[in-house]
Amino acid sequence: MEKDAIRAAYRAHLLRHNAPPTSVFQLTQELGIAESEFYQHYATFGAIDRDIFRSFIDDARARAEATPEYAAYSVREKLLAFYYTLVEQLKNERSYLTLITQREPFHNRLTPVYLQDGKARFEEYVEELLIEGRLTKEVVRRAFLSERYPAGFWVQLLFLLRFWLRDSSPNFERTDEAIEKAVTLSFDLIGRNSFDSAVEFGRFLFRS
Amino acid sequence: MSDHLPTSKVARAAKLAGAGLRVGANYVRHAVRTATASEADTATSRARLDNDNAATLYDTFSQLKGGPLKFTQLLSMDRTGLLPAAYQERFAMAQHQAPPLSGPLVVKTFREATGRTPLEIFDEFDPAARAAASIGQVHFARLNGQALAVKVQYPGVAASIRSDLNLIKPVAFRVMGLDENAFGEYVREVESKLLEETDYALELRRSTEIAAASAHIPGVRFAHYYAELSGPRVLTMDWLSGQHLKEFLATNPDQQTRNTIGQALWDFYDFQTRRYGAVHADPHPGNFLFSAENGGTVAVLDFGCVKEIPADFRDAYFQLVRPEIYQDDAQLLPLLRQLNILKTTDSPEVRALLIDIAHTVLPLVARPFVEPEFDFGDPSFQTEITRHAEALAANPLLRAQREPRGVPHFIYVNRAYFGLYTLLGDLQARVRGGGA
């Protein structure tokens, strides 16, 4: 039995009944497989939710990277492309996400279990982008702050996810605007800006 | 940050309120200047005030893409003297000011329309926009050797246009000193046209239809639109060759070429207004590309703003430029009443003034229609029109009129003809429009 099939069956059950199956046994019965087969792939239903969100992140990244335009993008544009691909894909998953986030709302600080694997993958991706961004001078290394950047971008992703879930504009056009502006702002902040000049000026005054 | 757009309605309202305050402050400065200045300086101060206000408003408008930008462009097209020259200049710049969409958003929008990314379809696609309009931007692409223009619309434009207009109206009317309520019908006409411009499916259909219907007119070129590479927010069309008016005029085209192009433009507009029943109503220079090849041709771009002309309005409108009508009050007055230029509620002085205006202005603007061959390069014609417009704008009795005149169809049909006259004037073309 394919891992994907178990995942799909779980999702379908969740969407049809507005609740997860009452037991692993019930789900494996529906699928016509032995319960033990389920555990080869997942320990709990919660693990499936985690895996689903991880797959959203991985798929969005893979699809964004697969477009011929991607290679020539700046780091800022790469992240934009990732977000746009993500929200485009999530259109097929809106009901699932609405349901799961209603059952367990997410906050900026406390990441619910079902987002944790996805968060790890996203932060890995952002780390890679930031390294590239330092080479392209789009990102400035700053004491104490630099290591907080990935966490900051995770908060940005959660913000955009929340914005999208509440967006009622046709074709979620408002979310496109939100992505455009949020990413521009964040790269204005982590790029060289007046903050750095202020710090340097402070240092200079302190030394002299 | 100049590329930071205020998003929420509240933020936009705050922006505009700020502009209103600053316009107010400019007036205070003007009052102070005039109170302490001699007679001669007062005029200078007034010009400076107009300049200050235009700068303030323009800076605000340029941060609010979509509706206001278009609205100001429309105002800047107004050649009736309603707007002082400073506003016109500033607002005419508006079309060059819009923050570009990011590359990924262009790709996303394109993929939504066609299912594939630009580079998956085209052999070449320039991620940097070649031109920006107030509601979108244009990219260059190439497919099988054919150069293409891909127009991509900003997200959320259609949705935000109405609320932006509601924000801009009080400021715009205040600047012009007009009564907003009396203009409801006119504002609706403008709003509906602005909203239509965001409908790319409509633009595709109209441009295809007008191009097909106008194919017989020599010297006018149109882009072919590719429906399969277009969508609600994307339009793909041929990249037309040619130069913008200023560059073209800088090459010193000979009189014959000017006349050929001028004639092509005249015939194109004449065909649209009189026979086709709908007219390309956005004739600012940026929407045409000129070429001296093949004796002189002009390419027509951007069919976002098309005015459909009802037959009864068309008939009445073209009666106005016939000498046997405007020289005969028995025929002219009922016509003016039908077009709502004269109203039954008018006082005798206002009525006399309006009839007087009709007697002087109509023979003037009708000249290209009446004379067998008309020279738009004749400087006296342009000065004469400007002089009349200024005199009308300065007329105290007319200024005291707080109500609009004329049926709303005038707005866009006049806009088309004012634009055409200006283009032909800049071209200094001799055109045979008479006998029509």
Structure description:
The complex is a heterodimer of chains A (208) and B (436). Chain A is built from 10 helices and no strands. Chain A is mostly helical and 208 residues long. Chain A is elongated and about 75 Å long. The mean pLDDT of chain A is 89. Chain B is an alpha+beta fold. Chain B contains 19 helices and 12 strands. Chain B has helices at residues 9-36, 39-62, 67-77, 85-92, 103-114, 118-121, 157-176, 184-197, 200-213, 245-250, 255-276, 311-319, 323-326, 329-338, 348-365, 367-370, 379-394, 396-399, 409-427; strands at residues 124-125, 131-132, 136-143, 146-153, 220-222, 234-238, 278-280, 288-291, 297-300, 306-308, 374-375, 430-431. In chain B, strands 1, 2, 3, 4 and 6 form a 5-stranded antiparallel sheet that branches. A 3-stranded mixed sheet of chain B has the order 5-9-8, covered by helices on one side. In chain B, β3 and β4 (146-153) form a beta hairpin. Chain B is globular, with a radius of gyration of 23 Å. Mean pLDDT of chain B is 77; it is low at 1-7 and 60-98. Classes of the chains: A mainly alpha (208), B alpha+beta (436). Chains A and B meet through α5 and α9 of A and α5 and α6 of B.
Short description:
Chain A is an all-alpha fold and about 210 residues long. Helices cover about 75% and strands about 0% of the residues of chain A. Chain A is built from ten helices and no strands.
Pick out the low-confidence regions of chain B: 1-7, 60-98
Counted beta strands of chain A: 0
By DSSP, the count of extended strands of chain B is 12
> What structural class should be given to the helix and strand makeup of chain A?
mainly alpha
Number of helices of chain A: 10
Helix-strand sequence of chain A: HHHHHHHHHH
- Percentage beta strand of chain B: 5-15%
Report the uncertain regions of chain A: none
Write down the overall geometry of chain B: globular
| End-to-end separation of chain A | 71 Å
Largest interface: chains, residues each: A-B, 28 and 23 residues
Helix content of chain A: over 70%
Biggest β-sheet of chain A, characterized?
Answer: none
Mean pLDDT figure of chain B: 77
Q: Which outline of chain A best applies?
A: elongated
